[in-house]
Design brief:
- The protein is of the alpha+beta class and about 230 residues long.
- It has one domain.
- Helices cover about 35% and strands about 25% of the residues.
- It holds the Pfam family SapC.
């Protein structure tokens, strides 16, 4: 996952400048829609709908896990509520890839000079930093895998738009737009040769995982109703 480096708060990570820098647990408001990659689909589908959206800047599709139904109102706030699923894109909060280097957002509250786990141990990556290196590597590889998956789905016309309308006990009605899923009807109509190719690539399992995860929207609505009743 390559991202531009700003000269303001983003810095290339190195032991000379950041030898005493420490990492704190991630905190703050949970996003309601989080980008995920194919290696996460099975774990995500246990508790979350998996839907596609389009990057407003490029128009490219990306996959995301729906953690909540409104911005700044994550229905599945805790990792326990998400079936112990912690998206890679949340784990890497504050870290980025710039070319062949790792960069950090120095203004991110995860970084401290007094508390948390050191990023370097005798100028070498600490256990925490090595874990983050693996996360970034998985994300970078997964973004490329997603592009291949989306291209496969689009060539076979498997993606379809979906508008979600949900009503809640407090009278509010929410509509989610600009989202896409895998069409079960289109899956059933595939030619045998395409089914076999999807199966061998691993994309058939992912397609059914995505299509089945839409049932988790009802779970999200139930959790939100329960929390509304308790507030």
């Amino acid at each position: 996952m390559r991202e531009p480096i700003s000269m303001t708060n983003h810095q290339l990570l190195n032991p000379q400048d950041h030898g005493q820098l420490r990492l704190l647990p991630r905190a703050g408001v949970e996003p309601h829609f989080v980008q995920i990659v194919p290696s996460e689909f099975v774990a995500a589908a246990i508790a979350c709908p998996i839907l596609f959206s389009k990057d407003p800047a490029t128009g490219a599709f990306y996959a995301g896990a729906v953690l909540g139904l409104k911005p700044e109102e994550g229905a599945l706030k805790s990792i326990e509520e998400r079936g112990c699923f912690e998206p890679l894109s949340l784990q890497r909060d504050g870290f980025f890839i710039s070319g062949e280097r790792i960069a950090i957002d120095r203004a991110n509250p995860r970084f401290s000079e007094t508390e948390g786990e050191l990023l370097f141990d005798d100028a070498q990556p600490s256990t925490s930093l090595r874990r983050m290196q693996r996360v970034l590597g998985q994300l970078h590889e997964g973004i490329e895998q997603t592009a291949v998956l989306v291209r496969d789905f689009m060539n076979l016309k498997l993606l379809e738009s979906i508008d979600v309308s949900l009503s809640f006990d407090d009278g509010e009605r929410l509509t989610l737009q600009g989202l896409y899923t895998v069409s079960r009807d289109s899956l059933r109509e595939l030619e045998d040769v395409d089914v076999l190719r999807l199966f061998r690539s691993g994309h058939l399992q992912l397609a059914y995982t995505i299509a089945g995860s839409i049932n988790q929207l009802a779970t999200l609505a139930h959790v939100r109703n329960r929390k509304l009743a308790m507030s």
